[in-house]
TrEMBL record:
Record carries keyword Transmembrane: no
Gene3D superfamilies: P-loop containing nucleotide triphosphate hydrolases
Enzyme Commission number(s) of this protein: 2.7.1.176
Keyword annotations of the record: ATP-binding, Nucleotide-binding
InterPro entries the UniProt entry points to: P-loop_NTPase (IPR027417), Zeta_toxin_domain (IPR010488)
Catalytic reaction annotation: UDP-N-acetyl-alpha-D-glucosamine + ATP = UDP-N-acetyl-alpha-D-glucosamine 3'-phosphate + ADP + H(+)
GO terms of molecular function: ATP binding; kinase activity
Domain of life: Bacteria
UniProt-recorded name of the protein: UDP-N-acetylglucosamine kinase
Protein's organism: Microbacterium imperiale
């Protein structure tokens, strides 16, 4: 057993001493009408903003659980950013997965309202979790944050590079992992539409506005259209201001990345994809004449940067020791992933 691996007794002690008291601090007694909310969204979406909105709606604040927060309870979490062995991440992932399962079980068995946030890359398992809570007397809700792929993908890259610049723990979500989670949001909407275990289905737009909200009690067909509403919100055209801001953020992130030679290959691949997205999707949405000097200058800069990135791609991939947590799927796991 490595120094990163926790003995079951140590992991359980941390759960009882630190995790449960902090996670469930706002709910000390069983509730008469407890609720479970699954808040889904690919990495880079504004899930934290949605959490605040849902808490306000709930009245009594539910316990909020996400894999990112649970990582910090590992006694060696602070050293993860400088760890050189893959087993360090593996050990933290296993401990986090166990604490996630324990929090889910604790909430269900003790009638505590819970808001569970993540990517939910196994929609069937996620809805299965809702079914188990429904059987235990909980009101269940699935809320999905709709963010355009271009925006969440850029947020992923910007957050990683900002943490690198600041010397903080930098966890890179690859383009492939991001896109799997993006597709999973659509699969979850379809799964929830047809599930009798989901009492309420909500789609939250990129600005925090609710673009779809229905309760099963209002009729058997009320959830129809949720998946279409999600896809529509994920495909919404950017305003000229938002498109300009997006391009500015991409160029600033790329400028910093080009000064570093120690970044994983996946970072360059992510930036290459984002420049391709800029040329295919974002620049054409600037609401300006195609022959305008502004558009031409932006295109030329983006094409030049794309060429620089393609030429700079390293031959060897650097192992990223801080990839996203994936919680195993199982009887009490809920299919939660980050």
């Amino acid at each position: 057993m490595t120094s990163w691996e926790l003995e079951p007794s140590e992991r359980d002690a941390i759960l009882a001493r630190d995790v449960l008291p902090l996670v469930f601090q706002s709910s000390t007694h069983a509730e008469e009408s407890p609720s479970l909310t699954l808040l889904a969204g690919q990495p880079g979406t504004a899930r934290q903003r949605a959490i605040r909105t849902l808490i306000v709606e709930h009245g009594q604040a539910p316990a909020v659980v996400g894999a990112d927060d649970l990582r910090a309870f590992h006694p060696r979490f602070a050293a993860l950013s400088v760890a050189s062995a893959p087993e360090s991440l593996d050990a933290v992932t296993r401990a986090t997965a166990a604490w996630m399962r324990d929090c889910i079980r604790y909430a269900r068995e003790n009638q505590r309202s819970l808001l569970l946030e993540g990517a939910f890359q196994n929609p069937t398992a996620a809805v299965g979790t809702a079914a188990r809570f429904a059987a235990a007397g909980f009101q269940t809700r699935v809320a999905i944050v709709a963010s355009r792929r271009a925006e969440s993908l850029l947020s992923v890259a910007s957050l990683y590079l900002s943490n690198v610049r600041a010397g903080n723990l930098a966890r890179l979500v690859s383009r492939e992992a991001h896109d799997r989670a993006f597709e999973a949001t659509r699969d979850l909407a379809v799964e929830a539409e047809g599930s009798s275990a989901v009492d309420q289905l909500t789609v939250i737009g990129r600005n925090g506005d609710v673009v779809f909200d229905a309760r099963r009690a209002d009729g058997d067909e009320v959830f129809r259209g949720a998946a279409a509403a999600l896809e529509g919100a994920q495909s919404a055209r950017l305003s000229r201001f938002d498109a300009t801001q997006w391009l500015s953020e991409l160029h600033h992130a790329t400028d910093f990345a080009m000064t570093r030679r120690d970044l994983p290959r996946a970072v360059t691949e992510l930036l290459v994809e984002l420049h391709d997205v800029a040329l295919r999707e974002v620049i054409p949405e600037l609401y300006a004449p195609s022959d305008g000097k502004f558009i031409s200058a932006i295109e030329q800069k983006t094409v030049a940067r794309l060429g620089d990135l393609q030429r700079s791609q390293p031959l060897e991939e650097v192992v990223d020791l801080a990839a996203p947590v994936v919680v195993p799927v199982g009887p009490e796991r809920g299919g939660v992933s980050r």
